[in-house]
Amino acid sequence: MKNANSYSKDSQKAVTQYRSTGRFEQSRENEAVVNAKYQAMEVLDFLLTFQRNLRLKAFVTKFKICEQNAVRRKPGGVMEPLMYETYNPHDRAKKAMRKQKNILKEVKEMFNSSSIFDIESTTSVLMDLSDYKYDKMVTKSLDILNKLYSSQSDMFRLAKEAQILLTHDSARVHREVQRSLPVLRRLAKQKLNDQQVLLMSEILDELAEFCHLPKTPEEPHFMNQNIMISHGTLQIVLDILSQEIDAKLVEQQYQGMTTIFKKTLYLMSLLTRENTTVQERLFDQLDTLLSVQIVPSHLAIALQEKDKVTYIVFIANQTTCLKVHSKQIQKIVMLASRHQSEAPEFLELLKVLVKVEGLDLTIKRNQALVMKYIMQNFKKAAYVLDQPREEREKILTNKTEPGHLAYFIRLVDLLATCAEGENKFIESLCQTILPVEELLWIMNHENIDSNLKKPFVKFMVWVYMKPAGNLAESGAADLQHDKRVWDFISLTTHAINQLADAILRHAERTSTLLKKPPDPSFVSDPENVKDVLHGSLFFILEAVLPFLEAIIVFFKLLFLKINYAIMIYLKRFFYMFNYAAMIYFKDFEFRVFYTLFYSADKDLYPIEIEHTDTLANGLMLFCEATGPYLTNPAHMKAVVGTLTILVSSSSSQKGSFVGVVEKFCQEMKIGDTKSAVRKGNMEYYANELELNAKFLTFSINTSVVHVGHNTVQAQMKYRSKREYTGIGTNEELPLGDEFQNLCKCFINSHEKKPAKKYAPAKKLLEQLEISAKLVRKAVSTTPSQQELDIKCMQILRALVHHEERKLPEDWDTMTSEAKIKKQLQHIKEVQNSINSHDFVNKVLPHIARRSDAIAREVLGFLSIMLFNANRDVQKAMLEYFLSTREEVFFMAVRDRMQISTNSIKEKRSLLAQHQARVKEAMMNLGSFQTSISTGKKALQMIQAYELRLKREKMQGWRALSRAKEPTVDSKSKKKRKKSFDKKSKKVIQSNGVSRDLSNEALLKSPDANDIIHEMELVDVNVEDEKVAEDMIASMDEGVVDMLEYKDDGYIELVLKLLARICDGQHEGLQNYLREQPDNIKSFNIIGETAQFLNVVYATINHRTIDLVIQLLDTLNEFCSGNQENRVVVYDKKVVDYINFILRAGEMIDCPPEKVLELRQSIAAVIISLIEENGPGKSQVAKEVKDTLDKEAIYRCMTTCYEMHQAEKPKLEDVLKPEGGGYLQSARRDRRMD
């Protein structure tokens, strides 16, 4: 290499130019160097992984020392408290801060000792490599730079997923998986020969065995699942299933692949059983999974089947059921139509999408979509229903191929599930598909197996017995005295009596059979007692009992409609004598009216009375026989509820009923429902689970302490009391020095002018442009590339965010101050420096990507770039819209709004269904006679038991994963024990005999409290009101939180962005959001946003109030200075919704500050609607004035004046329904104009 002094002047100039720019350009000479440097970066990537693993090993060693010292009662150092749930890493007390500094010192020493790179020199090399004009060099260098400055946070992320193995079995599984996975990974994307198929099959079988408990495939092995997932098994499974293989060539060339795909789907289902985190990861790959063509039946089973394989993506997962796209539902219906009898399991998959398992609630959107696509493909999707009766009879009597029967049964079950929830339109469709005559023919057919009748009885209940439409139109009004209905009741009465006798003879078999229902299309062998008993048991419990309960209520409803005139007189009667009794009339009409007006005519219909009495007596015998063996709460409730209603409607002796129910309560198995194998394994792994819980807690607490507190002072080292970022919000940024130092890499700190200071940020935008090109070409991106894109946008956002955080909290009230003006100008210059690199063209296309995380970052970045109405950025956005004529942004905004609308409506519907269930349970409680109040206690007891089962199911093995502090020392234990012995002994009464439980083994059981509670439920007399309150509380627990509002479509961020786009009355963007005349399809975003208020205005609470405030602020920006937008907003009935909010009074559990902010936003919207004069403008103002609730305005003004007179008005007083503020007065003045 020549010395610099040996070059001539011109040569030196050329060398300098080459070093500064020429070597980065694309050329043949540079290509070899680029490839060599790229390979060197691959090595660097490997070394970074090695460094991360070194740090993880050091971190585990620290935990090991702390844990061992805790066990030995030795001082464990400053980090020992981090192992326990009680430690608070967010504590800012002085004493806590001192301890956190010591912890931070230890963690930094650990990271420094395990570091193998010099950060500064490596950074300068990587920044230099990012200047090459090769896309792969830019991407790779920025990716490694991101990993370099994320190595510490990556270590913590890995630690949270890591497993510490304590038992010999776990260590053995780890070694076996470690040995097998390299082979599986190598073969995952290959077309295999026979030998490779055999090898891969053996590996898949071995891994599948690890995923469940020994000899019990239905019981997941929690520890082994986590070991395999932490090894990356799930990604290998997806790689195998993502292979593109032509189904037509399977028989000719790829016969072995059918076996591999079946085994892979089975393994995938086992890996995800009872694991919602993995289910949601697989949901993101749903399109890939639905493209599997080789084994459609096994795919459908893997995606939903409970007994054969697993709840993989949708069962018991409300989130994924709500998020599923309409095109995905359509694809599943098309797969069912195409494969028909070859894969009837697709219909069961659709049923799981329609009804949330566990919550037992239907999703109306999914119901409508499934029915829509079935009707569109009726000839294929419902081919069995399109055949003549003779053919259908052959199918139902099992005289054709089994696949047709399986498809028929599952199709009717799916249609019945779609009709649940009283949907009038779907009911009318179902009534045309299966008329009542057809159903009664099937229900009374002697040669059709009882198990096959279940979906048809369910169809009858939901389509005809519980209709939302007119009873006369459906033909259900004639069912009351229909001979075929009473023939079916007679038939089932006979079956119930026979079944009760069979249960008494085969008690042991009954207990086993009740644990698992038969296959939907199972046909019993008449000669096989076990088969007959199995099918009959579930037919009675899951079809007949709900039918009987529904038909009694149905008959009551008929009589209420027939005697409507009598009901009116009855209401007047109540009103004249006791106005308060009107409150209870709705409950009264279903109880008293039935007893007053419904009595079967003994002369005309004597057989009905006889059937009712026989049925009640038979059901009591059935209850007595099955009581000791029932473990399913739904079956228990069906037996008690139906029996109670039926006995109260018949002439049977109430005393015998009380005896039966009391015996039923005493014999109910409400103890531990875990299988012996599961319980034994949980005990075996208890210490390992507890140790892993401590390590997880240790990792989380250490990572929180390491990144520091969420303040501007702690993160940016700038004196301010403001929060740095909103934790848990859509605009959250990473915390910690790593992220701050990474941001500094893209800032020239020695430059003063923003344009030069932030010039390196251009590299981040180049990377986003490279990714946008790949997206346009439909090239699939890797997870690491998605992470890099997200980090690029976070850094760009942080560059502006850091300057915005330097403003005081209330800066918008001090905009005239010189210091604030200077900082706002500086923020604008930072925004413009980023905007100068064509940021809109490089960032906006990413909003159309499927990844929610990327879409969120795009929205957040655009929002911060438009902070304080930056005209240059607004101009750039408008120019982009006009030049590209792309609909991507508007379509994405509309889709996000649609996602949020669907989510809110569905959760509201689910909550309404849940409340209806609670109300129905209360009505059932209220309808019981006092003499049979035992039914109340039985139902309450079952409800408590069901709640406990739900808790166990939700927690599973995680119930043992608790990081608790060690108990106090033995001396204090002895003292506590003595005082306990002296002071009190636990005494309860069981069956009237006092018992001292202080020495009972029951108290040592972890479930002791539950068992005592259950015993108290049976033995203690509870007031009716208390019973009702307890039942409501138990039904609400664990359900209401799941149905609360969540910002699913990032709608608050979308609305914030729309507001900032129009901020400062930018007329061009205001108009373009309303109409895009240069596009093929125009989206009225103004109208869509105004219409969204219709979705949220009626349910404002502490969770939704921020959304409503942001929505009103956005509407305010739309209307300010734009007459056309005012007209659109007014036409969408916004003022009517505002009236509703003003009249509603106090908001439920909303902070007073938020309520005040809401009213200020309302006032601002109305001022924007009426603030201008003119021919058209005054007309809108007059219409607003006429529509607005004047009384509400007067109340606001009056209270505002009264508060103004007081010396120190309380905020709560201002916020009463009458409260208003200055804007209310301004609104009054404008109205008077």
From TrEMBL:
The keyword tRNA processing does not apply. It comes from the Eukaryota. Keywords: Membrane, Transmembrane, Transmembrane helix. The keyword Hydrolase does not apply. The chain crosses the membrane at residues 537-559, 566-585. Residues 972-986 have a biased composition (Basic residues). Coiled coil: none annotated. This is RyR/IP3R Homology associated domain-containing protein. Residues 1049-1142 form the RyR/IP3R Homology associated domain. InterPro entries: ARM-type_fold, RIH_assoc-dom, Ryanodine_IP3_receptor. Residues 962-971 have a biased composition (Basic and acidic residues). Residues 1-22, 958-987 are annotated as: Disordered.
